[in-house]
Amino acid sequence: MIIRTQVHARAGLLGNPSDMFGGKVISVLIKDFAARVRLWESPRLTLRLHPEHDRSEFEDLSDLVGSVRRHGYYGMQRVLFATCRRFADYWGERRIALRKANFTLEYETNIPRQSGLGGSSAVIIAVLRALLRFHRVPARLVPPRRLAELGLSVETQELGIAAGLQDRVVQSYGGATYMEFTGGRGRYTRLSARWMPRFGLAHLAEEHFGKLESGQVHSQVRNRWERGDAEVRRVMQRIARCAEAGREALRARDEKALGRLMNRNFDLRRRLFGDEALGEQNLELVEMAREFGLAAKLPGSSGAALILLGDGERERELADAYESKGYRYQSIQVQ
Predict the structure, then answer these.
(1) What does the radius of gyration of the chain's CA atoms come to, in whole angstroms?
(2) How far apart are CA 279 and CA 126, in angstroms?
(3) Bond into 17 cis (ω within 30)
(4) Which residue, among 196, 198, 197, 151, has the nearest Cα to 170 in the 3D structure?
(5) Are 105 and 37 in contact (CB under 8 A)?
(6) DSSP assignment, residue 299?
(7) Where are the domains of the chain?
(8) What single-letter DSSP state applies at residue 334?
(9) How far is 284 from 121, CA to CA, in rounded Å?
(10) Which residues lie across from 332 on neighbouring strands?
(11) How confident is the model at residue 57 (pLDDT cuts 50, 70, 90)?
(12) pTM listed for this prediction
């Protein structure tokens, strides 16, 4: 029997990046993009690396350089290793024995890279779900909250990556989720997919990869937060309130209010982090949509713009404008 799992890309609709600072966010899944895993029992444990994302043979040196720009130095190989190891350690720490059986695992993903859409976390959650099914772990032992925490620990404990729960929560819960991180333990509420309006997504193309800011300025905001900087705390509270008000706007199907909140969310973030940290391309991705009178913001750390389309009258013009600049654009379905 082949076990198949699928986890969609995610987009921060409102409130990000306050989730990293004890705030509130609304996050949705993008149905157009997903990571998919297939797993089946086999004589030896085998992780099948992707022929494009995890290449080790190249036409020439420029081909190698292009692959590194697109997929990094390790592709998804280290993510697969780290997920499997963390899964084993997690149950070992609880003294729960897993099946004495090997498996073969392979993955596929069409989530745009370097676009802040939760591509790595989607692969991790998909692998974890496949491993849970393979080892016949009862669902009650790993509810969505715990799955999100386990997924986060793969990156923070195994890979040493600074990350938060937002991606993993919405991907574990399987749809639009309102998250509150105030007071320590997160509180999560699923939102109805019927409340969601039409969105578009503009994101980087391959030729832009490797040109983003290093993130050093982002870390300065974290340092200021930890020192108790009053401005950082005040602005993060205002960003969090965008998510709080956004939940009511979604429930009321008030797209104008939603658009105002998306723009305010981005403007507050820009004011706090500064243009240098956000980067020229990220600013352009958002500002191009605004030139068409549309609300837009960053759905993640960088590399993409989430756009509220409204009636969509000028969507073809919008798409052409992005394509003329070398960006990618498409309308998306969210849940």
Answers:
(1) 20
(2) 31
(3) yes
(4) 151
(5) yes
(6) S
(7) 3-191, 194-332
(8) B
(9) 26
(10) 199
(11) confident
(12) 0.92
Token look-up 């897993």 returns 98
Tell how far CA 78 is from the center of its chain: 18
* Model confidence pLDDT, tens digit, residues 162-181: 788 999 999 999 999 999 99
In angstroms, the CA 243 to CA 191 distance is 12
Predicted confidence (pLDDT) per residue in 69-102, tens digit:
776 776 788 999 999 999 999 999 999 999 999 9
Tokens found for residue 224: 């200021």
DSSP string, 15-79: STTGGGGT-EEEEEEEEEEEEEEEEEE-SS-EEE--TTTT----SSHHHHHHHHHHHTTTTTHHH
- At the top level of CATH, the class of 194-332 is alpha beta
CATH fold of 3-191 reads: Ribosomal Protein S5; domain 2 (3.30.230)
Closest CA to 166 of 183, 150, 180, 182: 180
Q: How far apart are alpha carbons 11 and 115 in whole angstroms?
A: 10
Nearby residues of 162 by Cβ (< 8 Å), 6 or more positions away: 156
As a whole number of Å, the end-to-end CA separation of the chain is 29
**Length in residues, the chain:** 335
Give CA–CA dist 219/235, Å, rounded.
Answer: 16
CA distance 219 to 15: 18
Question: What residue type is assigned to position 235 of the chain?
Answer: V
Cα gap 175→173, rounded to integer Å: 6
Which one from 19, 60, 63, 167 is the annotated catalytic residue?
Answer: 167
Q: Would residue 167 show up in a list of annotated catalytic residues for this protein?
A: yes
